[in-house]
Each structure stands twice: as C-alpha cells, then as structure tokens.
Amino acid sequence: MTNDHKVAPSILAADFANLQRDIEMINASAADWIHVDIMDGVFVPNISFGFPVMKAVKQHAKKPLDVHLMITDPDRYLADFKNAGADHITVHYEACTHLHRTIHAIKDLGCVAGVALNPHTPVALLDDIIADVDLVLIMSVNPGFGGQSFIENTYKKIKELKALSAERNPNLFIEIDGGVSLQNSAKLLEAGANALVAGNFVFSSKDQIATIAELKK
C-alpha cells in the first residue's frame, strides 16, 4: 500500500492538561486528521468532552477535525459540532433511526459524512446507504474507552466493506478505530483500510512524531 492512507491521532489519549501542546505536535507531524471522540455516557459507558473543549482544539488545529460521535440522538447536535469546528462528522449506525436523513444533514452542513459500526454490527447493513456516505468507521474495539485490545474479526469486515463499496463508492474512506499499532497497520491497509485512528499507541510512545511517521509509511 502506498502512503496515500490517512492517519488520525485520537486526542482522547492526549494529555488534557497540555492539550494545546499535543495539538501542536499533531500539526507538526505527518498526521492528516485530528480524531475527536465525543462520548455522552449513554451510548457508551464513558464521557469525554463537549463543545468548549472542541472549540479550544479548533483554535490550535491546523488539520481537519475528524469528529466521531459516540452519542445517542446525534441529529440534535450536528450543527453545534459543525459550529465547534468539525470538518468530518461520523455518527453510529446503532444510534440513528433515520440514517439516510442524518447523513444528508451532515453533508448539508458542508462536512464529510461518516457512519461508524460497532464490532457486532455487520457491514451488510450499510448496503442501502453505501453510495451516500463519504466515510465508514469500523470499530476494532468496543467503543467507550481507549487502550483496548484489537478485535481480529475487523480484517474480515474491512474486506467485506471494500467489496461492498467497490462499484458504488470507490472513493470511500474506510477508517479503523481501536487498537491500531505498527503490529497491525500494514495488515489493515492490505485488507482495504485507508484511514487509521491511533490514540494510546501514538501518545504513549517516546517519540510521538516518529510514531505517526511510521504509521503513515
């Protein structure tokens, strides 16, 4: 795989007391996007951060904010996230009753529109929407907490998604979130992924810029 894939460090793993420093590190790195995990404590068993923190991130970010909404009823907040600085908005399949409407509402805001799938949600459920979305995020851990171990079934799902999108949406971003490291990144790209989210792996490394460069290779 050539390095035309995207790398999106997840600031959920950043040092929140030094968030500006960590955003500036990402700005200076080979990363393409800044991944922002929004959790509400209802859809997932954790609460991350909301609009004030996101606006603060946006002030310093020089790369697109790739916002992943792990929240119930995301439709209520789409415009708020756009106004807080989101460039991409990804909603969960499991949280959207009217997914087609939600995806088009995101596009109407001028954002890249994504849909995320939990580990137990089959790729085949996207058959009717695949032509409409810009990005599909496959959760390779159960959402809610960073630092979990990678679920091996992810490779199969990537291949299925690649096959599903090949004719109707060849430019689809296939993004993987959870347990991504240098141990599995090449295999993920080989399976058909073209965007990698990495949190703990980047922020716990001694040389974060070098780690991002390795993921980008």
Automatic annotation (TrEMBL):
One of its GO terms (molecular function) is metal ion binding. It catalyses: D-ribulose 5-phosphate = D-xylulose 5-phosphate. The active site is at D37 (proton acceptor), D177 (proton donor). A divalent metal cation binds at H35, D37, H68, D177. Binds 1 divalent metal cation per subunit. Its EC number is 5.1.3.1. It comes from the Bacteria. Keywords: Carbohydrate metabolism, Cobalt, Isomerase, Manganese, Metal-binding, Zinc. GO terms for cellular component: cytoplasm. Pathway: Carbohydrate degradation. GO terms for biological process: pentose catabolic process; pentose-phosphate shunt. Pfam families: Ribul_P_3_epim. Its cofactor is Mn(2+); Fe(2+); Zn(2+); Co(2+). Substrate binds at S10, H68, G144, F145, G146, G147, D177, G178, G179. Belongs to the ribulose-phosphate 3-epimerase family. Catalyzes the reversible epimerization of D-ribulose 5-phosphate to D-xylulose 5-phosphate. PANTHER family: RIBULOSE-5-PHOSPHATE-3-EPIMERASE. This is Ribulose-phosphate 3-epimerase. It comes from Mucilaginibacter mali. The lineage of its organism: Bacteria, Pseudomonadati, Bacteroidota, Sphingobacteriia, Sphingobacteriales.
